[in-house]
Automatic annotation (TrEMBL):
<keyword id="KW-0597">Phosphoprotein</keyword>
<keyword id="KW-0596">Phosphopantetheine</keyword>
<dbReference type="GO" id="GO:0004312">
    <property type="term" value="F:fatty acid synthase activity"/>
</dbReference>
<keyword id="KW-0012">Acyltransferase</keyword>
<dbReference type="InterPro" id="IPR050091">
    <property type="entry name" value="PKS_NRPS_Biosynth_Enz"/>
</dbReference>
<dbReference type="InterPro" id="IPR014043">
    <property type="entry name" value="Acyl_transferase_dom"/>
</dbReference>
<dbReference type="GO" id="GO:0071770">
    <property type="term" value="P:DIM/DIP cell wall layer assembly"/>
</dbReference>
<feature type="domain" description="Malonyl-CoA:ACP transacylase (MAT)">
    <location>
        <begin position="1"/>
        <end position="202"/>
    </location>
</feature>
<protein>
    <submittedName>
        <fullName>Acyltransferase domain-containing protein</fullName>
    </submittedName>
</protein>
<dbReference type="InterPro" id="IPR016036">
    <property type="entry name" value="Malonyl_transacylase_ACP-bd"/>
</dbReference>
<keyword id="KW-0808">Transferase</keyword>
<dbReference type="GO" id="GO:0005737">
    <property type="term" value="C:cytoplasm"/>
</dbReference>
<dbReference type="GO" id="GO:0006633">
    <property type="term" value="P:fatty acid biosynthetic process"/>
</dbReference>
<dbReference type="GO" id="GO:0005886">
    <property type="term" value="C:plasma membrane"/>
</dbReference>
<dbReference type="InterPro" id="IPR001227">
    <property type="entry name" value="Ac_transferase_dom_sf"/>
</dbReference>
<dbReference type="InterPro" id="IPR016035">
    <property type="entry name" value="Acyl_Trfase/lysoPLipase"/>
</dbReference>
<dbReference type="Pfam" id="PF00698">
    <property type="entry name" value="Acyl_transf_1"/>
</dbReference>
Amino acid sequence: GELSAAAAAEVFGPAETLRIAELRGRVFERVPDSGSSYVACGAEQVATLLRDDLVVAVLNGPGECVVSGSVAALAGLERRLTALGIDHRRIAVPGAVHSPLLDPFLDEYRALVASFGPRPARLPLVSNVTGKRLTEAEATDPGYWARQLRSTVLFDDCLETAARNGAALVDAGPGQGLRSLAQGLAGRRPGVSAHAVMGGGRA
């Protein structure tokens, strides 16, 4: 995601990026009995169904999002969604990504990023936190990268910003999940196209 893009733009060096990614993975695993679920409805509708520690973790598009929180709270949400006939599925990711349950670990994460001295991006980047062009102040602020770990990912806004600035939308990962989201934007913005580097199977 944004961390890989930051590495490509030389905000972090390769070894630094691996250290940050390793800690990121460990942070997610430190939140026991938590997880995330895909929900086929927009943020406004799902917000009326959230209880306990649940939050919208990712805004994929106008009609889909990801919700994170404790396993018990997610189970309750999934029962409510099923009763309403709204499609949903649990996502195979460790922990409640992009949620307040990560707050106890943000200082450690911020300190690691600060120890590397993040640098201004040498390529244009789009921020998952704001959905806008990443500024130099954000790129070089360890606090920004801690917020990026915990904040809602504004993925659809990021696609809009990239497309508005003439960027090609390319899914470089295994599968075509991100491409399908980008195709949703392409359907709303004539002239925008989305491509995948790899096929539908895992690489």
